[in-house]
Amino acid sequence: MAAGTAAGAWVLILGLWGSVVGGQNITAHIGEPLVLNCRGAPRKPPQQLEWKLNTGRTEAWKVLSPQGSPWESVARVLPNGSLLLPAVGIQDEGTFRCRAMSRRGKEAKSNYRVRVYEIPGKPEIVDPASELTVGVPTKVGTCVSEGSYPAGTLSWHLDGKPLIPDGKGVLVKEETRRHPESGLFTLQSELIVTLAQGDAAGPTFFCSFSPALPRHRALNTAPIQPIVRSGRIPSSESVPLEVQLLIEPEGGVVSQGGTVTLTCEASAQPPSQIHWIKDGIPLPLPPSPVLLIPEAGPQDEGAYSCVATHPSQGTKESPAVNVIIETGEEGRAAGSVGGSGLGTLALALGILGGLGLAALLIGAIMWRKRQHRGEERKAPENQEEEEERAELNQSEEPDAAESGAGGP
After folding, report:
1. Using a CB cutoff of 8 Å and minimum separation of 24, what contacts does 231-237 make?
2. Contact 170, 164 (CB under 8 A)
3. Is the fold of 17-117 the same as that of 243-329?
């Protein structure tokens, strides 16, 4: 009992000689004045007190007193011992301490932890989506908040419920920037969602800014309501985009004036946009999965391919197919036999027949030449025989005359 009485007496004595005020957290709006009270200080001079400041403006403790000069336009001690900061800023965040002695010799201390804040304007959604496709990752929009301090956070909500990023159906890309002069923050948050079959037909999205300091309400953007279009639910394993080009007639060979039909088939859903290429040059045609070439002519010959562009699987080009135009003569030759194969056979037989006829003509000519030469060789022999016969006839005539003259 005596020990307890003694302890109580010591507590009373310490209370009479001085008291320490516990540290307080002070929140001040940037640009507004701030007054910190020095507890225990006499209300009027003379006063025994001093303020010590450790903020972003100081490298060490800064000491201010009623007898000293004010610290430029940053802070000064008022006549009642309080400390005035005319326009608090980000650099004024820190610790403030006051030590005062009352007229009765009682010492008091005050500790303050000062933090500043700035509430930004209402956030907004930039580039909002007008429609979403089920099963396809789509950007909903970018939420932007400018001029906050501390930075704070942005969050997305769907039909009034917070959206939690999971890296699959909900993807959020965030960016924080700080102004080099004002020190205020700009926040950006981009939302990408992949709606599943059965999700709300008319979803409502909005973005919310939450200040970093407590007891400050959140700020919400205006809601957006994109249209939802049906699509397929993506499988657990992503199917690569496959593009196939079909041509009719098969093989790409068509008579001049005929019709060629090219059909581009892409495996992915929703349907891809199809563009056409001829000989490596894009054709200036609107997107279409079918390319029709009526009354085909020589100008339509070439290598054709199609390019499929899918919103989530990118772009892929099909293998090329060749379009060949047959002229009219080739078509008639082929038609007289009954087909391209029979026409080729008839052409080969015709060539062989022509070669045989030419060989017969050459043989006849050669035989005729040989016969003519034989006749030329026999002609001189007959002439000599005739000359010999003439000479014999002449020699017989004189003999006959002489025999006639010698008779009676």
Report:
1. 231/133, 231/134, 231/135, 231/136, 231/269, 231/270, 232/134, 232/135, 232/269, 232/270, 233/134, 233/135, 233/196, 233/197, 234/135, 234/194
2. yes
3. yes
Report the DSSP beta bridge partners of residue 224.
Answer: 205
CATH of 243-329, one of 1.10.10.10, 2.30.30.100, 3.30.420.10, 2.60.40.10: 2.60.40.10
124-229: in CATH 2.60.40.10: yes
| Sheet of strand 290-293: strand arrangement | 243-248, 260-266, 290-293
pLDDT score at 314:
81
Domain 17-117 adopts which CATH fold?
Immunoglobulin-like (2.60.40)
């080099």: which residue's tokens? 180
Give the closest residue to 265 by CA, choosing from 213, 209, 227, 321.
Answer: 321
Single-letter residue type at 254 = V
Give per-10-residue mean pLDDT for the chain (408 aa): 37 30 80 93 85 90 85 88 94 94 88 94 94 90 96 94 89 94 95 82 91 87 91 54 91 92 88 92 92 92 93 87 80 40 50 65 69 53 55 50 42
Cα–Cα dist 239/206, whole Å: 33
Six-digit token pair at 301? 């010959």
pLDDT given at position 202: 81
b/e 331-341 (16+ beta carbons within 10 angstroms → b): bebbeeeeebe
The confidence score (pLDDT) of residue 327 equals 78
Euclidean distance between CA atoms 387 and 393, whole angstroms: 10
